[in-house]
Fold these 4 entries.
Entry 1:
Amino acid sequence: MTNQLHTHEADFICKGRVVEVMQQNGWSFVSCTGCSTKLDKFGTSLRCTRCINPNIIGVIKYRVELLVDDGNDNATFVVFGREMLKLTKQDAAGLTLAEMNGGGDVELPQCLKDLAGKDFVFQIRVTPFNFTPSHHTFKTNEDQFLQVEGGEPSASASVKATGEGNEPNPPACGVKESGRKRPHE
């Protein structure tokens, strides 16, 4: 029997400028091709703790932390895989290979550096998970993520991201509430 927990969710629309592409946690990770979970290193092998498959194949994916400011406050958004591909026009595996062929420099790739100073419109989904003691993260849903040029949104790309913040209703953001039932975890 599955326990059902009724949760409230809210969607926020925020315009913000990427202040910095943060480098403390790198910009990529090796994920399982089966479930996209980050692979764990065990000795000289990689393992997926979700798939439990002994023949795991890994692929390099983006995990980029962006410090975003809306004019009143800032938050860190983590943007993954295909959403970063849409923003950079380069896949993480190819970019990693190019970096290694260029000497393996630990510096941030230019296409990621170029995101700093650009304005975007983010759509963020807030759930009770965002306010658990160990998680103050926000996830953008798969709706539009727009780059803003000259004060107006110009081109759209779908994006998922998570970010860290403490306010349930960040300034300069619109809100739309929704309810959803999900299994108790």
Note: The mean pLDDT is 72.
Entry 2:
Amino acid sequence: MNTYIELKNNPSYFIVNKKQVNKNKTLKTSILYNKIESSVNSSLTYYKNSLNLSFKNIEFDIIKNAYLNDKLIIKNNIKKLSDTEVILYITVSKKEEKKQNIICKATFGYSLQKIA
């Protein structure tokens, strides 16, 4: 079986608002995780009818804080794809004029089984 998954690789954007920050005006980790998880799930939604995806593992590395009113971009890319697994590499960066300032990196792994 040679499985091919084409991610719906439209970056997700969001602006950090008052409800998403703590008293120091930094983005709450739980909010960041939920945004990343939502982005990954929306990327894989189209394929859930033809493949059985089972969550396998996660790595989550916060590099820098995001603050109130920061504009953030979430991008998903395939790191590894085989007949039995898919591993997605996610970056979250601050949207700035001339550079992308990465604040978080994550890896989500899924086991694959073709639905009979």
Note: The two ends are 12 Å apart (CA to CA).
Entry 3:
Amino acid sequence: MDTRTNRLGQVMDLDLPAGRVHLRPPQGGLPWHCPPEHARPASEAEALRARVARLNAVSRWGV
């Protein structure tokens, strides 16, 4: 979770020497960088919301 933007992201890479966490939206899309101090694990509710959104997208669009 990027606390600056309240966006949920899947960690793709940790670039700690450069001070960045590379995140990607769980349903796909463009990745973004987040400073490590603004990244935190998603709560159970946030993770569930992301899973439901992904399943809805798959059933709706076949993504």
Note: Helices lie at 44-61.
Entry 4:
Amino acid sequence: MHTPTNYYLFNLAISDLLMLILGLPQEIYSLWSAYPFLLGETICRLRLLAAEASTYTSILTITAFTVERYNAICYNPMRANNSNLSRVIRVIIAIWLFSVLCSIPVGLQFGIVYIKANNVPILESAQCNTINEAEAKIVFQVSTFLFFMFPMAVIAILYFMIALAIRRSVLIRSGSDSSNESQTVVDPELRITQQTQVRQSVLKMLVAVVVAFFVCWAPFHAQRLLVVYVEDWTLTLILVHDCLYYVSGVLYYISTTINPILYSIMSVKFRQAFR
């Protein structure tokens, strides 16, 4: 059980669980009572900071898991489950520290915002929202690059390399089985067929992982960037924003449930492909 894969999966499960605990109750409550926000500015910022940190941790854990699988499969398949565990623990600790540090600027962009009538704040309109659009624009841009575009590129490229490695591995083993046909009681064609099926299953899983990552997080960052970039809101843009807001909210929490399942299944299929 003490393998790099299990360590990363456990850390992913913790970060995803925190995303649910820290975000979902407030989201559900806001559906019934959007105004006013009664918990104060400190809780407003801490809630966003904690949710952001757990989100970043989840994404970076997925990226680190991908790098770990790439190194194990493409450079040393025989030691795929025997990597230095102390190094993995250090990576996980670094992920949490980096995530918390990067979430602080995001948390500072939020505060209690009021709708004003005749330049007088309406207390019942209190809402936890961005308080400095200029700074929020920069922070959200950096966040989108560091925690969506860059991880997406890394994951897509490394899984493509892993797919090529799996394909080469099966072809090499297929040739070896064919050359040893007279020395084995196992039908080599049957073995080749089984290996091909396993390979195709793994390749489908790799595609599913990349697609799932993009689908779950693209609307979230698109909605954020839409808010900070759009100045003249038309009816169409408002409808697009509202659609992205609810879709990204649902996918945000769906990702917390499918991540551990998806990556657990994938790690099993990796082991099958490299038997």
Note: The two ends are 18 Å apart (CA to CA).
